[in-house]
Design goal:
The protein is α/β, with parallel strands linked by helices and 336 residues long. The chain is built from 15 helices and 11 strands. The relative contact order is 0.12. The model has no long low-confidence stretch (mean pLDDT 93).
């Protein structure tokens, strides 16, 4: 029976949801392994009477020695993800691959019977515009020049080769309620990309519910998505969110969005995990409703008069558009 849990990546969007859901369940003893930053101290010290906080760097073997309790399960969510992953190649490899390797070795030594739950990504399937139906059995995009993709593929292999009992969840695009920082990454995805998304709370629920379903998950990899009720296209998703936020139509110049070399698609076997864990509570309709409720009416109406100017500044962030205007052949090949 699983009672004592170690959680990494608790300060991330999904990680904090996992943390809160575990606390609310009142079924487990939980330790969080997190970096000692002002932000993390502020977020987690108020819970210090309920949890065990271990401050450390996952890439530092000496810090991992602080993990010395006999954990029944490890939920490993700590990772560098885009857009930071695209700017910090060395750090991405160090955290996503070396950090995972060091953690696995440590847990194998101190908690050899622990159940290791690992979060991977839909990105490892590569560009699926021409074949958007994704299944776990599909080949991985191992020749992808994207080092975030490579880091996740390498980390998966380390998990699979470990001596622990493990499971891997390949997460689809995770979209929260009006809490995403806008970056140039929004222009990397082709507008016609099919998407099966889900929410942070639903994704977190899969990990939490999985603690009680270990026998059905061990040594298996699953796609984690929102199912048919959460499928759309990137064009439809952006257009609806623009309207919700008072930005009007999705009217950008040609070549503002990339036309290839991103990821996402429909996870045709994501129901397999849902049938085991029953983690889905939201649909695309819920997502839009929650976004509408989160936008103050006054902010929306103050945005409307400036929507043209806002979209002007947004398109200045578009790397594909810059490549097209400058005729940068290397970047043109990357995006078009």
């Amino acid at each position: 029976m699983i009672k004592n849990i170690l959680l990494t990546g608790a300060s991330g969007g999904i990680g904090f949801e996992v943390f809160q859901q575990i606390l609310e369940s009142k079924q487990y003893s939980i330790s969080v392994f997190i970096r000692e930053s002002k932000k993390n101290i502020k977020h987690f010290e108020p819970y210090s009477h309920q949890i065990n906080i271990i401050y450390g760097d996952i890439t530092n073997g000496e810090d991992l020695i602080k993990i010395c309790e006999p954990y029944d399960a490890v939920i490993h969510l700590a990772a560098i993800i885009p857009p930071i992953a695209y700017k910090c190649q060395a750090k991405t490899y160090k955290v996503n691959v070396v950090g995972t390797q060091l953690l696995l070795r440590h847990i194998e030594s101190y908690c050899p019977n622990a159940f290791f739950m690992f979060s991977s990504s839909v990105a490892i399937y590569g560009d699926r515009l021409k074949n958007h139906e994704i299944r776990v059995s599909d080949p991985l995009h191992e020749d992808d020049s994207d080092f975030y993709v490579q880091s996740k593929i390498n980390a998966e292999k380390l998990v699979e080769q470990s001596k622990l009992e493990w499971t891997i969840f390949r997460l689809t695009a995770i979209l929260g309620v009006n809490n995403h920082k806008i970056t140039g990454l929004m222009f990397h995805m082709p507008l016609d990309t099919p998407m099966e998304i889900t929410t942070p709370s639903d994704a977190a629920r899969a990990f939490v519910n999985g603690l009680e379903k270990k026998p059905l998950l061990v040594k298996k990899t699953f796609n984690l998505g929102g199912g048919a009720a959460f499928r759309t296209t990137y064009r439809e998703l952006l257009a609806e969110n623009f309207k919700i936020n008072g930005l009007g139509e999705l009217n950008f110049p040609d070549k503002t969005f990339a036309e290839k070399n991103f990821h996402c698609g429909y996870m045709m076997d994501s129901d397999d995990l849902e049938h085991i864990l029953h983690f889905r509570k939201h649909t695309l309709i819920d997502y839009y409703r929650l976004n509408k409720e989160a936008v103050p009416v006054i902010r929306k109406y103050l945005t409307i008069p400036f929507k043209g100017l806002i979209k002007f500044f947004l398109r200045q962030m578009s790397e594909p558009l810059r490549a097209y205007k400058s005729n940068d052949l290397k970047e043109l090949e990357r995006f078009f």
